[in-house]
């Protein structure tokens, strides 16, 4: 009877024993026996991360019984892995071997924040990107990070895409590739379409929201994306990735690397092709790219060369559709001309040199050159010939040869060209005189030379006017821009308090061809100087929990259109932003959370008001006071060994205190309407953005439900309830299966079903007002996104 009772009791306790929670802890030291503080520790294929304290101690708690692989990494030391079986509290100590060569991470360290920095950031590893990389543009791989909204002109994430972070568009998001600016020097946007499948050559990305730390290139007003491309892989490899999906979407990628040769050299290469018809009618994309890198690793230095290029041919889907058509004919495209395309190629060359001058000094230097060229072609109906430097066409009687009239208008096809060079140098010098103190001096000098010219390549009445010969150039102007910046940064650890200070000086010179008055054009110059200070404090409550606060100032110059359509008397002022961030971060064994508050206070933010300057151009105008305030949450919970939950949320308010909207009558010179607004919403700034991911893995298989909610957005700055993008809630389903077979290291099958509930929504749009012959009206347009669609990938790793 006692045996029976014992058996029953044991059976009842079995589930609780199976759910028993244990811990893995240990010490991380260098090969000289010194404890390594701040080493990164994680559990392989789990969302468990930790860091070592001042004594080199780490700890994972609340772990269910099972087998784990613990990975420990520390800059300048070889990464180490250990397999650990957990059936009780377990100790796993690590002794890391110092590398005989410098780590690649040093190359981007000057423009990144460290683990305990007083700024808001998100790190994405190569493994994070691989989960979602099936050929869609890079912004779509960032969609599950806080405060992000993405959109696609073609509707399915391939072709022209856009990204906003905290409501700020791509022109206010600073993007660097290995510390080198990617933003276009004139428009200030980043066009990832010019580098298709870039994510396949990315090792990691750090997203800093807000102003962030000092970096190179245009000022960051919404966020910074710091992208590091392929780094050293010690073993030779080859990979073949193929994707097929809805809208006849194809992606083919082959990549290979030598691994480390003679402990000194490595070479990696990738070749990609992506094609898609697009969700929107005729919104096709034909994209190609390659990436090649080679590196030399010495005992105290690295020399790396990157060469990569992308070409794109995209049928235009830039016009959008009206609200009625959004319901009745969502896939409509206004353009019907066969070659209404955008065509562009961009070649990048990057050379990096890093050297350990001593145990306390590390120097970085880089040279870069980018060559871009291309055009977009479009059909224009009933155009006035004199606007294209063409004389009216003389019409003669075929019998008498007498002049019977003149043709002043014609249908035509034009190409708008851009041919540019961007080159320069970046540098940094890091000094670490003590374990609790480090200094960084960094900066860059870059030059841009842009050649803008426009051509008529066909006109309906070309036979009647010799001047309309093929490739008739009617507009030709050049631009030059230089950008110099230097910054100094210091981190000081005082017991549990980290003190951060960062001072940057930036000097911008821009020479451009633009309007002097309503009829005269000339080359003009502008010079701007900015001082951008940043300060922060981080206090460690425990080894894995801290609170922080920072204040950072950013300044940003107007863009090309702001300059070319104005003169010195009407030119907009530069924008200024004071960004206040404060937050709480904790990383426990199975639970990570970051909560952040922000206040972004703008002075002279540039917005579209409809106002014309004195030369008749409609450019953005400065508004004196505007702001964004909000709260962000980024959390992940490993509920049990095979099931995790990740979520982000942003609750914010974005306001313009007051501005005046101008609407001019296009038929009655001088007549206009004005509307005054107070405390209005900034366009494209939803009050709530949320994402969610439930993921379950079993042996080699995985399934994840990925969700995204974006609240209602105003299409203009008037806060009108009529001109809005409706809120949308989208769910995707991701299935994965990985197996080792047939001598192949890994065969991966990935099936992604986007928008599984077939929601009809638009993620972007616009609005405007018009006045014609005394009649006032408003209009709006939308960019519809794809309904239910799929991407199926088959990947081989050798």
TrEMBL record:
Ranges for domain TonB-dependent receptor plug come to 117-223
Identify the domain of life. Bacteria
Q: Where's it mainly located?
A: membrane
Subcellular compartments: Cell outer membrane
TonB-dependent receptor-like beta-barrel domain mapped to chain residues: 327-756
Task: Name the UniProt key words of this record, in alphabetical order.
Answer: Cell outer membrane, Ion transport, Iron, Iron transport, Membrane, Receptor, Signal, TonB box, Transmembrane, Transmembrane beta strand, Transport
Q: Does the keyword Methyltransferase apply?
A: no
- What membrane topology does the annotation report for this chain? Multi-pass membrane protein
| Signal sequence region | 1-20
> Gene3D superfamilies of this UniProt entry?
Carboxypeptidase-like, regulatory domain, TonB-dependent receptor, beta-barrel domain, TonB-dependent receptor, plug domain
Q: To which protein family does this belong?
A: Belongs to the TonB-dependent receptor family.
User: What is the designated name of this protein?
Assistant: TonB-dependent receptor
Originating organism: Pedobacter helvus
Q: What is the lineage of its organism?
A: Bacteria, Pseudomonadati, Bacteroidota, Sphingobacteriia, Sphingobacteriales
